[in-house]
Amino acid sequence: MSIGDFITGYGPVAVLLGVVFEGETAAFLGGLFSHRGLMPYWEAAAAAVFGSWIGDQTLFYAGRYADRFPIVNRAMHAKHAERVKALLLVHPDAFIFSFRFIFGLRTISPVIIGLSGVSPLRFFIINLAAALVWGVGVTMAGYLFGNAIETAFGHLGLYTDLVVALVIVGIIWALVAYVSHKTKTHSPKVP
Fold it and tell me: Residue 86: its pLDDT value, please?
């Protein structure tokens, strides 16, 4: 079985699981694979949306009901935990909607939100809306990136597309991490 056959057969499941455990890269690659015709775009986007939503719902309930779990203890003592608590206190709905877009806060935020006493229904609704925006947006970015690669270089092989995409994602991730670090060290603390 070739990688193309594997993606065609199991791509949406792989995107969903990849998003639950990793995040952006899996959703981005889902969009790239849909551009290549290995799966319909709607399947890649739906897998990204539901993977994001399921992962964050799970972490929310871990924070809410399983405070003895190691992941909850790590989140409570993470270096960004105080920042998450402060942002949640000042702008609760906006933060619940946007935490998945803030570098370094994605995994610990739903756990801390679960610990905070935010109602499950409120988190459910805002999280679903945010997962929809995030999943469709990141998958579309991967799709458009595939289009840009094809426009710039012609139709490349699948492995070449993957390598180019992963290198670009790595560069973008490093730039975001650098800018996030610089912004954090040069900005005033959130009240």
Answer: 81
